[in-house]
Design a protein that fits this description.
alpha/beta; two-stranded antiparallel sheet
Length: 208
């Protein structure tokens, strides 16, 4: 996986969203799930004014198809109210939109009342789930798994980002905003992704 000088991945699909602010320094990759149906449906929602500017740099469908929406030197509205402590310096950063790169994975999330992603996913012949309890608490419930092509694509993108931008962390939305977010959740092997990117163990959960 190669990142071009203009901060776009080489050889992947694009669905360009203009805007964002200049991101002079990039600190971390933040992994999310869409809680939605397909990658295309999430991209379509992001273009709706009701989405309130939500957007990730990259979205990866269940079959491993990668779509980039904004170059990596521009900010995206993927993290929201969040906090993260630099493991090297101990400095705390707030509002991770300003200094992190968001990867969204098409996934229905967990079996909670109402999420369209879960309702859509369970009707598909390829659907698989796993029962687990989130490390941040809550009851054991069913979570849609992340499929091998999708996991492989996520690893390739994350490794390229860490290498190109000398990033300090690979973390989840549930670690930088644990009071309000549960993605990517226990069905995602975050420890394996971090190991592939040169980090160890699970990311720190940054609570208020």
């Amino acid at each position: 996986m190669k990142i071009r000088p203009d901060h776009w991945l080489e050889g992947v699909a694009r669905s360009f969203f203009p805007g964002g602010n200049e991101m002079k320094v990039r600190r971390a990759v933040v992994v999310h799930f869409t809680d939605g149906a397909t990658a295309a449906s999430s991209v379509s929602w992001w273009r709706n004014p009701k989405a309130g500017g939500a957007l990730a740099h990259v979205i990866i469908d269940r079959d491993g198809t990668i779509t980039q929406c904004r170059p990596f030197n521009r900010t995206c509205g993927h993290a929201g109210k969040s906090r993260w402590r630099d493991p090297k310096t101990g400095v705390i950063y707030y509002g991770l939109n300003s200094c992190s790169i968001g990867i969204e994975l098409a996934n229905g999330g967990c079996n909670e009342p109402g999420p369209d992603g879960w309702d859509w996913a369970v009707k598909q012949p390829w659907f698989q789930s796993v029962n687990a309890r989130h490390r941040n608490g809550g009851a054991e419930t069913a979570w849609e798994v992340f499929y091998p092509p999708q996991v492989a694509a996520c690893e390739a993108v994350a490794k390229a980002l860490v290498a190109r931008y000398n990033l300090d962390d690979v973390t989840g939305h549930d670690c930088i905003a644990p009071e309000r977010k549960i993605d990517p959740g226990p069905a995602f092997d975050m420890a394996a992704l971090r190991k592939a990117c040169g980090f160890t163990g699970l990311p720190v959960v940054h609570r208020k």
